[in-house]
């Protein structure tokens, strides 16, 4: 029976050795899987971290752009309010220009502009009242008047040269707006 015991012991030892080998192989596969899964998780973590950082950076850029646009809009609104105040003040001041200054302005325009011989001077109602009936214009006065307007228009056939004070202020205001826009663009660069 000892040989049977020895045989049984040998078979059990062999089975135990096989089981230990399988167990060791399983542990190695498990360790390899854990390492692979850890590497995958590390990679996923880095990808997610980069995505979150990129999203945060994009949000920051958007917020900075929005702040910049809001600041620009506020400056534009302030400039528009200032220009409107400027226009109103200048229009009022131009309506109060002394008659001799208006006459000198008309004379200056007449002498420094190529005006055709058949041209006529159309006075604004406010300017006509200011100059009175004794005014001797450098070119023929039109029977027409520009209602509710200060300044004048030189009419030469179908062409009109508009020197009404409102138009002069509007032209100057446009030039100021252009200068302000250019200044804002230069300051943003």
Protein described:
By secondary structure, this protein is of the alpha+beta class. The chain folds into 2 domains: 1-96; 98-188. The protein has helices at 2-95, 99-112, 125-131, 165-188, and strands at 120-124, 141-146, 151-156, 159-164. The protein has a 4-stranded mixed beta sheet with strand order 2-1-3-4. The longest helix is centred in the N-terminal third of the chain and has 94 residues, at 2-95. The radius of gyration is 46 Å and the shape is rod-shaped. The model has no long low-confidence stretch (mean pLDDT 87). This is V-type ATP synthase subunit E.
Helix content: over 70%
What's the N-to-C terminus distance? Answer: 102 Å
Structurally, the number of domains stands at 2
Outline the biggest β-sheet: 4 strands, mixed
Sequence of secondary-structure elements:
HHEHEEEH
Main sheet strand line-up:
2-1-3-4
The proportion of residues in beta strands is: 5-15%
- Radius of gyration over alpha carbons? 46 Å
Tell me the number of helical segments per DSSP (H or I, 4 or more residues long). Answer: 4
Could you report the average pLDDT, rounded to the nearest whole number? Answer: 87
Shape type: rod-shaped
Helix- and strand-based class? alpha+beta
Unreliable segments of 5+ consecutive residues:
none
| Total E-strand runs | 4
Organism: Suicoccus acidiformans
Protein name: V-type ATP synthase subunit E
């Amino acid at each position: 029976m000892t040989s049977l015991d020895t045989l049984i012991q040998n078979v059990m030892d062999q089975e135990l050795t096989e089981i230990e080998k399988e167990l060791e192989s399983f542990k190695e596969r498990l360790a390899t899987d854990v390492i692979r899964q850890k590497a995958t998780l590390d990679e996923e973590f880095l990808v997610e971290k980069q995505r979150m950082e990129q999203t945060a950076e994009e949000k920051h850029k958007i917020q900075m752009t929005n702040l910049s646009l809001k600041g620009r809009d506020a400056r534009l609104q302030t400039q528009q309010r200032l220009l409107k105040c400027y226009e109103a003040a200048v229009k009022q001041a131009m309506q109060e220009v002394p008659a001799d200054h208006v006459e000198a302005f008309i004379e200056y325009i007449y002498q420094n502009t190529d005006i055709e011989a058949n041209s006529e001077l159309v006075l604004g109602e406010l300017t006509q009242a200011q100059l009175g009936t004794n005014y001797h214009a450098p070119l023929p006065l039109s029977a027409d008047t520009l209602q509710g307007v200060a300044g004048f228009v030189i009419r030469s056939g179908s062409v009109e040269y508009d020197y009404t004070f409102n138009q002069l202020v509007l032209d100057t205001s446009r030039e100021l707006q252009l200068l302000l826009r250019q200044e804002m663009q230069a300051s943003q660069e």
